[in-house]
Amino acid sequence: MRFMVERDTLAEAVAWIARSLPSRPVLPVLSGLLLQAAADGLTLSCFDYEVSARISIDAEVAEPGTVLVPGRLLAEITRSLPGHPVEVDDKDDVTLTCGPASFSLVTLPVGEYPRLPELPRLVGTVDGAVFATAIGQVTPAASRDDTLPVITGVNVEIDGDTITLVATDRYRLAIRDLGWHPARPGTSSTLLVPARTLSDAARMMAPGVPVRIMTRGTDGAATTRSTAVSGTSDAMIGFESGGRRLTTRLIAGEYIKYSSKFPADFGSYGDMPAAPLAEAVRRVALVAERGSSVRLSFEPGRVTIEAGTKGQARARETVAAEFSGNETAIAFSPQYLLDGLAAALTAAVGAPASASQDQDGTPVAKEGRIRLQFTGPTKPALITGSPRADDEPAPDYRYLVVPLRALTSA
């Protein structure tokens, strides 16, 4: 095998693949990164029976071939190479030459490496930017507690031309609806996708570039492999866009009945400008110590945001607000509040309706709004965003979060 490739192209491709390499491979060979050089270019891939990643890049291939090299070491090397084209050959060991720099890598046995999974069933396509934004809005709410695998995933519900993404860690719940193009009309299914892998998939998505969603073994009940990690199944999902493909085994189990978590109504609501509110909370939260809260207190025409660390610092800032209700104050975990506001801000100012026209037809930007609805200091509060002050909150994103007082008293 012998090929030449641009340094930046190779470094970016290896870095993306390396994110999917297992941190503690059950077999040494699974730590490898597979390089396949062919007449049409270079393909890099990895697979550990749970997650696979594959990317194709342009390369000048003099001699086709396949080698398996230590993945994380290759990532370290390519990141540090000087700005020259990289030449790779495997006459003895695998040798990388880049200008004055040269590295030799011992290869791993290709014959022992697992075959990458094929996902023959195309479920549908979705715009890369829309899907990546939706993923970014919900994945922060997914649990990181591996003892409860079901809530470490994002519940992907497909119903016709709508996808609903749901994530929770039991203390907050994020929901995002988005449109897509199903391969077959009337498609309906529910897939539980690991949140971390879904976040990695979002990194390969770009505006205007369709993302192909493919599945395998999602019809009927999934069975658990003895070789799989507990909580996973044989069913898989894959995302393909721009020459990159990422697949992951789905999480087995039934997701929580999240619809019942939403209160029937709320006694109080505050309507606030999205960007000023998010910026104020971000500043005030700087002085909030671990376990303390960010408190929002409403009064006519404004909301006061406060936080502090006992004996060290306090912060206070006011933002304009329209308020209605009897309960005037509520407090949240700083990070939970920041995550919800960031996603609601995206829903508010990122929507096409965030721009209107003046009398001459010239687009005029309208400030997005965030609405906070709550009933009391122990009841879940709802955060939503809308593109204009006179609009109802956008229904495609909802963030339900438990106030801090309820958390600490539980």
Write down the overall mean pLDDT.
Answer: 88
By CATH, the topology of the largest domain is DNA Polymerase III, Chain A, domain 2
Distance between the termini: 62 Å
Query: Percent helix among the residues?
Result: 10-25%
Overall shape: it is elongated
- Give the radius of gyration: 25 Å
Q: Care to count the β-strands?
A: 29
Low-confidence stretches: 220-231, 351-365, 406-410
Q: Biggest sheet, strands in spatial order?
A: 6-2-3-4-18-17-16-10-14
- Known CATH architecture of the largest domain: Roll
Sheet with the most strands, sense and barrel status: 9 strands, antiparallel
| Name of the top-level CATH class of the largest domain | Alpha Beta
This entry's quaternary arrangement is single chain
Number of helices: 7
User: What share of the residues does DSSP label as strand, in percent?
Assistant: 35-45%
Could you walk me through the main structural features you see in this protein, from its secondary elements to its overall organization?
The chain is an alpha+beta fold and 410 residues long. It folds into 3 domains: 2-112, DNA Polymerase III, Chain A, domain 2, CATH 3.10.150.10; 121-259, DNA Polymerase III, Chain A, domain 2; 262-355 and 363-409, DNA Polymerase III, subunit A, domain 2 (DNA Polymerase III, Chain A, domain 2). It is built from 7 helices and 29 strands. It has helices at 7-18, 71-80, 128-138, 195-202, 274-284, 334-349, 404-409; strands spanning 2-5, 32-38, 41-47, 51-57, 60-63, 65-70, 86-89, 94-98, 101-105, 121-127, 153-159, 162-168, 172-179, 181-182, 188-194, 210-216, 232-241, 244-251, 268-273, 294-299, 302-309, 313-320, 322-324, 329-332, 355-357, 363-365, 369-374, 381-386, 397-401. The strands form 5 sheets. Strands 6-2-3-4-18-17-16-10-14 form a 9-stranded antiparallel beta sheet. Strands 15-11-12-13-29-28-27-19-23 form a 9-stranded antiparallel beta sheet. The protein has a 5-stranded antiparallel beta sheet with strand order 5-1-7-8-9. Helix 1 runs antiparallel to helix 2 and helix 3 (128-138) packs antiparallel against helix 6. It is elongated, with a radius of gyration of 25 Å.
